Each structure stands twice: as structure tokens, then as C-alpha cells.
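SAMPLE LOG
Freezer: B-3
Tube label: C17
Construct: single chain, 429 aa
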Amino acid sequence: MSNTDLSTRSRAALPGGVSHELRYSTPHPVFIDHAKGAEKWDVEGRRYIDFKMGSASQMLGHCHPAIVEAIQKQAERSIFSADCHAAEATWAEWVNHLYPSAERTRFTASGTEATMLALRLGRAWSGKDHVLRIDGHFHGWHDHALKGAMPGSDRASSLGIPDAVNDLIHVCSPDPQAMEAILQDARIGTVIVEASGANYGCVPLATENLRALHDVARAAGVVLILDEIITGFRWSPGGRQARDGIVPDLTTLAKTVTGGLPGGAVCGCAEIMELMNNETQREGLAPAVSHKGTFNGSPLVAAAACAAMPLLATGEAQAQADAMATRMRDGMNKTLHDLGVVGLAYGESSIFHLYFGRTSLDGLSAAQIRSLPKPQVKAYRDGMLEHGVDLMAYTSGLTSAAHTPDLIDEALDGFCATLTAMIHDGVLS
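STRUCTURE (predicted):
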């Protein structure tokens, strides 16, 4: 079976032939057959060095033995019964131990559900319906997350979202003074921020700036949600908040928190989280904040997460991934210099981004950083894939504990070959 054949089949069965719009690719996507460590192979047997890593979920590497064993053992005992079980308590204890903001944790079935629940909690606790978010920051695909997701635009990035919902969402730049000004609107009771800056740090958010945003929200008395769905367990065992000492009221987690399986979590201060306690009654409702979800805290997911937690808690996995991302960024910048291409590889922790046309992002807005010419981005991504290097999104990638110096150096060879071809074809100058 070829990628082309599978794409033809998929297009007849799935809208666009995919289950996620970012998996769409022309002339067809790559269909992966299996993966191990930091590598994966498509249905035609072709190997790729993976810098997507399950959309940042496979922090320990694909098919880590401890994760595989935990899933296999749990599958023999109970795949799913919709009951409480011991592993969900153990899992929550790990999160509460590692995250400064976490006194209670509630599990969800996805990262999008985590931000949706966190916003509901923020509104319930504050008693205010309006939410402030940052231009270009990403918080999933639900109705309350899409206005402002496109940098530089107040328009929701999808049809089908009522104006009444969009009217509840306010957008500002990641500027403390701008946030302070907008929070003069007494209708706003909740602020949500992507911990890394827009799109997992493609638009960087310096620590001192994040701390200033935190301080403004605190002074305004609103509920502050820190979206650590990508930074959580990646920038440190306790996410960016533990690394940089910035503690929100609520934190959203997914991807790595589950050991790389489907799911997510909201954690935070007990007073707010206990609104979901069935014994908490407010305004005739008990629980005061309703949260259901058949597969929340699924035994299979909890088993994987509990196997991952001790490995993630040491910080060794993060240190390895960070070192490999640094090696990748340094190598990319050297290649840009050697080829005479004006550009910049940048990023924090285990993430790398690429910008063409400038050697500094100073003075650029989120919209400008995210507006490289589409033909240039496609040529870069297609070229890297042709040389066996798969990226995450846009011009970005990330590493895991399974990446090695040899894999990074091989990927850098592909980077050099890709840029050389782009110069030859006139896509780069």
C-alpha cells in the first residue's frame, strides 16, 4: 500500500482525507505505519527523523518500554469500566506534587476539553462571563478559544461560532499595559495565557513579560489560567510555572501529562477546583460546576501516565531534549550563516522555530512572525520531509528524550540540503 493509494481511500471516507486539519497535505499526507524512539516509518517503509513527536505528546520517545508495558498490563485487567480506580488518584498526586498551582486535579479527555473546563471554572468563580486572551495564543478548537487565535485578527478562525460567544472574548497583545487597560472592563473575570507565548513559543514570551502579565492579572483580581498543554512536563517537570516561579490560579495540561495518550487535565487552587465537588452547592446547583466525560481518567491512559511520571519527575528527560534542541538550533543558525541566508533559528527548552528574512524578531508582531510566504513555508517543509525530516507545524519542531546527537546531525544535513535547493529554486535568496 502506498501513501497515494491510502490518500485516495481516505478522501472518499474522511473530509479532506484527514482527522485533523493540520494533517492535510498536498499532494497527499504521509501515512505512518510504526514509530520507535525519535524515528518513524511510513507505509512505504521510508524512515523519518521525527520532530513532531505526536504533536509534542511523546516526550519520552515513541513506544517507550515502560509506557508500552503499562498499557499492556492494564489492558489485560480492564480497558474501561467507567468507574473510579486507584491509578487516577496516584496520577493526580503526581500532578499536585509537581505543579506549584495544583492543590486539586481533574482529568479530561483532551487538551481542548481542559481549556474549556478551565474557562468554565474561571467564569463560575469570578461570576463574570467575559474572558481576556492574548493575540495568537492557542487554546484548542472549542467555541470560546478561536476568537483571537489568528494573530492580528479578532475574527474567530472558524464558521459556526455564534456572535454571542465571540462577544464574550476580548483580545489584547502580550503587553502588560495593554492588559491592564482592557481589564478596566469590569465584565472580565478570567484571563488565559499560553505559557510559552503564541504557538508554543513561535512568538516568544520572555519570562519578565509573562511575570508582568501575571502581576497585572493578580492586581485586577481576575482568575488567571496558564495553558501549559505543551510546556507542561516539557520545560521542566513542573512546567514553566515551576521553572520560572510564575503561579496561576488554574493550569491546563495535556499531551505529556498522559504519558502520550489521549487526555488532559486541569489543576489549580482547591477553592476553585472544589466547585466541581458534588458536595459543593451554589445557587441551587450541586456540584456548582458540572463536569462530565465518559473517558476522563481512563484506566489505560492513567496507567501510561503513572508509568511516565517517575521518568518525567527527575528532569533527565527534559535535560536531554533541551540539549538536543540547542544542538539543532545552533546547527541551523550555522547553516544559515554558511549559506548566506538571512534567517534565525530560535526557541526555548526543547523547541526550535525558524524565521526567514531577519536575524532578530525584535519589533515584529505575532502576525508578522506568523506570516512567512506560504510557498516558502511549503518548500521548506516539503524539502525537509523529502530528506527524511518531519516537522511539527509551520517552520517548527521539537525534540524528545529519545533524540540523539547523531539524529540531530543527520537532520542538519537535511536542513542544509533543503535550504540549498530552496536557493537554487529561487524560494530563498
